[in-house]
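ok so for the tutorial part 2 we go from a plain amino acid sequence to predicted structure tokens. step 1 is just haveing the sequence, like this:
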Amino acid sequence: MSSSNQYNRLAIVFHWLLALLIILSMIIGKVVLERIPNSDPEKLNILQGHSIFGIIIGLLMIARYLNIKLRGKPDPIDSSGKLMRQTALWAHRIIYLLVFITVATGLAMAVQADFPAVFSGVATLPESFNHLTARTVHNLSTNLLILVLLTHISAALYHQLIMRDKILHRLRWKRMD
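step 2 — the prediction. this is what the tokens look like for a chain of 177 residues:
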């Protein structure tokens, strides 16, 4: 069941919660973790938090996808032409794909570096993660995700502020009937 002009409340919660968690996770990964050497004991706690965020993001993305498939989504904005609708469709698909790749490569990195043993104190972090194939793909997918999300945010602001089609009202908690 879909509203003709607004996402269901669960979809709205998923959207904004995921937006927050993804941004926080990218800041932790790109700004904090990349600057701390693996030999620094402080890195372990931050890495655990980053890993937990990644797992939560993956699970929430699956729940979000299922919610949209089961409950539907609003009709496309009237002011959007066919090209804009197709671009939006593919942009959202790419966001999903990049988030899932980033989460999957994070999990693969955890396996390659034996995070369970490291987190339980049985093993230590490797000197670097750079030799891990999953690390290279994780970094690339994160960088692409940042680029796509900045484009996504810019497009939403363009719609809201320039086209004035109230696209962000579709993601507000209060119903705009």
